[in-house]
């Protein structure tokens, strides 16, 4: 990356201040995704400017790849689903818990073979590290271990099927939503022995 951009002290200060404002406003402008990815991007820009990392200026001015918004929404929906599954599993009786494979309740993150893996990992890292989003549904299942040790193979196809099953559950009469029954948890975790191939 070759830097052809030169900023004086005043220009860096003004630009850094503008990114601070955008970082705060990102959650308001992107209510569906929560603005997590955008807020983290602006935070990185602020660090580049404040630390005078001139070799990284092109990242600010020439732009970098952004995780598509539909993928951001999917990732957030997946983390929310796993948080709901973990909480619901904890409320089951011990006999009911024995009926379910507890390992399938734990969110393992995304594999390096998943499309947009690097961008998703950065997105989840921003989610995990941000104080702004610490109370957002789904954040509790994002852990340092999960980010550091990704699973082998693609995970998005499996997660997408689970989201499809969740939508089917929501359409059923009597679905509560705030808590899953043992049968609902089994429906969301069984029959996925192998992740389907990537499309």
From TrEMBL:
Pfam families associated with the record: YfbU
User: InterPro entries per the record?
Assistant: UPF0304_YfbU, YfbU_alpha-helical_sf
Domain of life, per UniProt, equals Bacteria
- By what name is this protein known? Uncharacterized protein
What is the organism of origin for this protein?
Zooshikella ganghwensis
Q: What is the lineage of its organism?
A: Bacteria, Pseudomonadati, Pseudomonadota, Gammaproteobacteria, Oceanospirillales
């Amino acid at each position: 990356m070759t830097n052809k951009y030169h900023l004086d002290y005043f220009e860096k200060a003004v630009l850094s201040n503008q990114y601070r404002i955008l970082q705060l406003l990102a959650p308001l402008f992107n209510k569906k995704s929560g603005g997590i990815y955008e807020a983290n991007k602006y935070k990185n820009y602020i660090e580049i400017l404040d630390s005078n990392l001139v070799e990284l200026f092109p990242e600010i001015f020439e732009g970098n790849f952004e995780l598509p918004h539909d993928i951001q929404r999917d990732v957030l929906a997946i983390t929310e689903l796993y948080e709901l599954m973990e909480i619901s599993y904890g409320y089951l009786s011990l006999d009911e818990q024995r009926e379910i494979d507890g390992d399938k309740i734990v969110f393992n993150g995304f594999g390096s073979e998943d499309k947009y893996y690097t961008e998703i990992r950065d997105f989840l890292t921003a989610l995990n590290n941000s104080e702004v989003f610490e109370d957002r549904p789904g954040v509790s299942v994002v852990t340092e271990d999960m980010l550091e040790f990704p699973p082998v193979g693609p995970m998005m196809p499996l997660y997408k099927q689970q989201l499809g099953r969740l939508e089917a559950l929501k359409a059923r009469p009597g679905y509560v939503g705030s808590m899953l029954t043992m049968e609902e948890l089994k429906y969301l975790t069984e029959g996925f022995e192998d992740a389907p191939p990537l499309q």
